[in-house]
Amino acid sequence: MEEFKHLDRDIQGSAKRWKKFVESECPEKEKLPQEWKSKTSLQRLCMMRTLRPDRMTYAVRDFVEEKLGSEYVMGRSLDFAASFEESSAATPMFFILSPGVDPLKDVEKHGKKMDYTFDNNNLHNVSLGQGQEVIAEQALDLAARKGHWVILQMGLREGDAETLKQPRKVVGAD
């Protein structure tokens, strides 16, 4: 692409400036070195994807805010009580999380109103990974038998959906 012609040469020729940019804690907030600072927002996003892919979530957020407005990136609080009313014992709730979003507090708050707490041993929280799958299976089975709540914190991987689909006899599902 013509817009990025000679970028490789510029990075080699101004290694200190580019190193400072690339090693920045929040490079998406920094100005690009030299003539690259005049690039469009989309071109800047492309460069960020190449130079610091780990910061793309934040860079895309800034891009959307710049182009569409802050209302498109502001987190909305979840009305967990309303969502809970739409669920049932046989219908689990799933939350897709993004940076800065943590529905756990809402779940705990609503659970406390209904006497589901960690202290009562009827609210279970399992962070999956590193062998926690067995503990999660046990918590799901216990919850199905006794009507407990289970929070599974996980990054979905291949095979997880099949495990979650396994039928369980659920208390109160009839």
From TrEMBL:
Any idea what this protein is called? Dynein heavy chain 9, axonemal
PANTHER family noted in UniProt:
DYNEIN AXONEMAL HEAVY CHAIN 17-RELATED (PTHR46961:SF16), DYNEIN HEAVY CHAIN 1, AXONEMAL-LIKE PROTEIN (PTHR46961)
Output the InterPro entries linked to this UniProt entry. DHC, Dynein_heavy_D6_P-loop, P-loop_NTPase
* Limits of the Dynein heavy chain region D6 P-loop domain: 89-153
Q: What is the lineage of its organism?
A: Eukaryota, Metazoa, Chordata, Craniata, Vertebrata
